[in-house]
């Protein structure tokens, strides 16, 4: 362990990473640099600086990455209409490559030869952090304490903290029984009573959304403006990507939009039950598909849908920085050049309903699609030959008794 001189720790200031900080100092006898990222979790981050300072840390990074997160990670993912296993909008998964990127940048800036994280040996995040780190700096050493130490329970962590004088802020009042993770795209809940897939989560678990039953009795209409597949304005007001996330999370959450309760397949092989709130993402997925329905060629749209599950798995499993994800992203982004226009959605008691879409790049031709007189724009007799040619192989097989 003596070969590690300096390590960059992904540090939240909570129990786990506070213990890890001290453990790294004691076990590896190395200098620790702390990195705390603001990716829209809505928490005060300055206490992390105070705790790191108290632990003797000289190089402390607290970075506001909210705009970069939305612009360079969330928005590109939604251009692909990405959804994992038919339901999950990848809120945790998409944040990890950005954190890995910044860990490596800080390691390069500070001359560190290692990075460290607080992900456990059972989850996906260890894979995501480390695949990203190795892709960006192949020679980096990764220290994952949960795979090395024997502090494998909350009580052992608390005992360690007490022995070493590590302050642990205990929340007053009723504490959450769930393991939670939040960023601009979502908030997740796992553990405790949710480990029984039959148990319904308590209503007071949810933080970002009202229950659909208690949503407003009057629908809320939202108009989204698109440019090259990205939302650039809401109700005619220009927004940055992060501002889009903030605005849509607020308005959709107030209408009970975005709750999800699923059992997913982790990359490490186990099934896991989790609950998620993704208000903005739920609206974005529905609206983006609506604007694409007007502006994308049929075969382009269908090809995107065929490739999307692979793209989603790459993100879920931690391969954001892989060459295959970059290749897919190039194709996806190229498909978005004509994805411009407006979509109007109605939010009502947990539902997102598309009620209008328009685009100067629309491929919808009313003269052809109409049920009224099309004035010769489409010759219906042409369909006969089209049908017979497509039926030819089946007619031949039927005649052969096959």
Automatic annotation (TrEMBL):
<dbReference type="InterPro" id="IPR024074">
    <property type="entry name" value="AS_cat/multimer_dom_body"/>
</dbReference>
<feature type="binding site">
    <location>
        <position position="179"/>
    </location>
    <ligand>
        <name>L-citrulline</name>
    </ligand>
</feature>
<dbReference type="Pfam" id="PF20979">
    <property type="entry name" value="Arginosuc_syn_C"/>
</dbReference>
<feature type="binding site">
    <location>
        <position position="37"/>
    </location>
    <ligand>
        <name>ATP</name>
    </ligand>
</feature>
<feature type="binding site">
    <location>
        <position position="125"/>
    </location>
    <ligand>
        <name>L-aspartate</name>
    </ligand>
</feature>
<feature type="binding site">
    <location>
        <position position="264"/>
    </location>
    <ligand>
        <name>L-citrulline</name>
    </ligand>
</feature>
<dbReference type="InterPro" id="IPR014729">
    <property type="entry name" value="Rossmann-like_a/b/a_fold"/>
</dbReference>
<comment type="pathway">
    <text>Amino-acid biosynthesis; L-arginine biosynthesis; L-arginine from L-ornithine and carbamoyl phosphate: step 2/3.</text>
</comment>
<keyword id="KW-0067">ATP-binding</keyword>
<feature type="binding site">
    <location>
        <position position="128"/>
    </location>
    <ligand>
        <name>L-citrulline</name>
    </ligand>
</feature>
<feature type="binding site">
    <location>
        <position position="188"/>
    </location>
    <ligand>
        <name>L-citrulline</name>
    </ligand>
</feature>
<dbReference type="InterPro" id="IPR001518">
    <property type="entry name" value="Arginosuc_synth"/>
</dbReference>
<dbReference type="Pfam" id="PF00764">
    <property type="entry name" value="Arginosuc_synth"/>
</dbReference>
<keyword id="KW-0028">Amino-acid biosynthesis</keyword>
<feature type="binding site">
    <location>
        <position position="124"/>
    </location>
    <ligand>
        <name>L-citrulline</name>
    </ligand>
</feature>
<dbReference type="InterPro" id="IPR048267">
    <property type="entry name" value="Arginosuc_syn_N"/>
</dbReference>
<keyword id="KW-0055">Arginine biosynthesis</keyword>
<keyword id="KW-0436">Ligase</keyword>
<feature type="domain" description="Arginosuccinate synthase-like N-terminal">
    <location>
        <begin position="6"/>
        <end position="166"/>
    </location>
</feature>
<feature type="domain" description="Arginosuccinate synthase C-terminal">
    <location>
        <begin position="178"/>
        <end position="396"/>
    </location>
</feature>
<dbReference type="InterPro" id="IPR018223">
    <property type="entry name" value="Arginosuc_synth_CS"/>
</dbReference>
<feature type="binding site">
    <location>
        <position position="118"/>
    </location>
    <ligand>
        <name>ATP</name>
    </ligand>
</feature>
<feature type="binding site">
    <location>
        <position position="120"/>
    </location>
    <ligand>
        <name>L-aspartate</name>
    </ligand>
</feature>
<feature type="binding site">
    <location>
        <begin position="10"/>
        <end position="18"/>
    </location>
    <ligand>
        <name>ATP</name>
    </ligand>
</feature>
<feature type="binding site">
    <location>
        <position position="88"/>
    </location>
    <ligand>
        <name>L-citrulline</name>
    </ligand>
</feature>
<comment type="similarity">
    <text>Belongs to the argininosuccinate synthase family. Type 1 subfamily.</text>
</comment>
<feature type="binding site">
    <location>
        <position position="124"/>
    </location>
    <ligand>
        <name>L-aspartate</name>
    </ligand>
</feature>
<comment type="subunit">
    <text>Homotetramer.</text>
</comment>
<protein>
    <recommendedName>
        <fullName>Argininosuccinate synthase</fullName>
        <ecNumber>6.3.4.5</ecNumber>
    </recommendedName>
</protein>
<dbReference type="InterPro" id="IPR023434">
    <property type="entry name" value="Arginosuc_synth_type_1_subfam"/>
</dbReference>
<keyword id="KW-0547">Nucleotide-binding</keyword>
<keyword id="KW-0963">Cytoplasm</keyword>
<dbReference type="InterPro" id="IPR048268">
    <property type="entry name" value="Arginosuc_syn_C"/>
</dbReference>
<dbReference type="GO" id="GO:0004055">
    <property type="term" value="F:argininosuccinate synthase activity"/>
</dbReference>
<feature type="binding site">
    <location>
        <position position="276"/>
    </location>
    <ligand>
        <name>L-citrulline</name>
    </ligand>
</feature>
<feature type="binding site">
    <location>
        <position position="93"/>
    </location>
    <ligand>
        <name>L-citrulline</name>
    </ligand>
</feature>
């Amino acid at each position: 362990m003596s070969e590690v001189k300096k390590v960059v720790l992904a540090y939240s200031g909570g129990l786990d990473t506070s213990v890890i900080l001290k453990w790294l100092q004691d076990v590896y006898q190395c200098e620790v640099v702390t990195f705390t990222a603001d990716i829209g979790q809505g928490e005060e981050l300055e206490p992390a600086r105070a705790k790191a300072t108290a632990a003797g840390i000289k190089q402390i990074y607290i970075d506001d990455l909210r705009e970069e997160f939305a612009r360079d990670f969330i928005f590109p993912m939604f251009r692909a209409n990405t959804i994992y296993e038919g339901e999950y909008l990848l809120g945790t998964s998409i944040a990890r490559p950005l954190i890995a990127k910044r860990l490596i940048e800080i390691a390069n800036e500070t001359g560190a030869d290692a990075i460290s994280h607080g992900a456990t040996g059972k989850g996906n995040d260890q894979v995501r952090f480390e695949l990203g780190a190795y892709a960006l700096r192949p020679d980096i050493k990764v220290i994952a304490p949960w795979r090395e130490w024997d502090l494998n329970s909350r009580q052992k962590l608390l005992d360690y903290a007490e022995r070493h004088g590590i302050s642990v802020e205990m929340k007053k009042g009723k504490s959450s029984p769930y393991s939670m993770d939040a960023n601009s795209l979502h908030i997740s809940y796992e553990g405790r009573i949710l480990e029984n897939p039959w148990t319904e989560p308590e209503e007071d678990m949810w933080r970002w959304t009202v229950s659909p039953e208690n949503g407003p009795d009057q629908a809320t209409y939202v108009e989204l403006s698109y440019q090259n597949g990205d939302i650039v304005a809401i109700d005619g007001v220009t927004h940055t990507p992060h501002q889009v996330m903030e605005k849509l999370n607020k308005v959709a959450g107030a209408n009970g939009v975005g709750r999800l309760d699923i059992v997913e397949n982790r990359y490490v092989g186990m099934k896991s039950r989790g609950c998620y709130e993704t208000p903005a993402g739920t609206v974005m997925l529905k609206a983006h598909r609506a604007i694409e329905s007007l502006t994308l060629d049929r075969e382009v749209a269908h090809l995107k849908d065929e490739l999307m599950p692979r793209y989603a798995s790459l993100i879920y499993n931690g391969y954001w920085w892989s060459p295959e994800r970059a290749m897919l992203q190039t194709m996806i982004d190229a498909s978005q050049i004509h994805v411009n226009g407006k979509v109007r959605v109605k939010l009502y008691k947990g539902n997102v309903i598309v009620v209008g879409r328009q685009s100067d790049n629309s491929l919808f031709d009313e003269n052809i699609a109409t049920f009224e007189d099309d004035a010769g724009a489409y010759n219906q007799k042409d369909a006969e030959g089209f049908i017979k040619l497509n039926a030819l192989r089946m007619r031949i097989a039927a005649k052969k008794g096959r």
